[in-house]
Amino acid sequence: MTDSSPEPRQTVDPANAELLKVIHDEHGPALNRFVLRLTRGDREFAEDVVQESLLRLWQNETILTTYSQDSTRAWLHTVARNLVIDDRRSSRYKREFQTDVVPERSAPDIFGPAVDKWVVSDALRSLSPEHRTVLVRAHYLGQTAVEIAHHEGIPPGTVKSRLHYALRALRVALEERGVVK
């Protein structure tokens, strides 16, 4: 079982804080240019990579305690390069693409509803007249079982029974037409 509580916030001693500022000022612009080239000009992602690289430097006490300008620059560039490579290998990157042009919205399907109506009306015609009548009155006209019973001159229980069997028969008819499984 994992602990979902947030990690305690790390503190930076004042000497390391000043060193981090110096490293950021010294290496930040060059690192940003390097990452921009790797990301083909994606400024937002490049800024994220630079920030993550500096964060990892802050978390790595070894680099901070043994600071040298060349080794720190090489370390930052390696971390940034690996972050870009990891992102480009991720499934998110493979499924998404950037574009300046938003695609047009898809047009509504004008044929689908017409075909649906044709298939349903064909399936309804395959039902017995008694089943079709109660189904149409209940689901298309919105009548209650009592209203249908009064209009058809049959008991409400018969209406409910016919409606039940009509729905089952309609389902079979639609399955035969490949609509419902």
TrEMBL record:
Gene3D superfamilies assigned to the protein according to its UniProt record, in alphabetical order: 1.10.1740.10, Winged helix-like DNA-binding domain superfamily/Winged helix DNA-binding domain
Entry's Gene Ontology BP terms: DNA-templated transcription initiation
Domain RNA polymerase sigma-70 region: from-to ranges: 25-91, 123-171
Top-level division of the source organism's lineage: Bacteria
Gene Ontology terms for molecular function: DNA binding; sigma factor activity
One Pfam assignment: Sigma70_r4
Swiss-Prot/TrEMBL keywords: DNA-binding, Sigma factor, Transcription, Transcription regulation
Keyword Transcription regulation: yes
InterPro entries xrefs: RNA_pol_sigma-70-like (IPR039425), RNA_pol_sigma-70_dom (IPR014284), RNA_pol_sigma70_r2 (IPR007627), RNA_pol_sigma70_r4 (IPR007630), RNA_pol_sigma_r2 (IPR013325), RNA_pol_sigma_r3/r4-like (IPR013324), WH-like_DNA-bd_sf (IPR036388)
Classification via SUPFAM superfamilies: Sigma2 domain of RNA polymerase sigma factors, Sigma3 and sigma4 domains of RNA polymerase sigma factors
Family matches, as NCBIfam families: PRK09645.1, sigma70-ECF
Family, per entry: Belongs to the sigma-70 factor family. ECF subfamily.
The name this protein goes by in its record: Sigma-70 family RNA polymerase sigma factor
Organism placement in taxonomy: Bacteria, Bacillati, Actinomycetota, Actinomycetes, Mycobacteriales
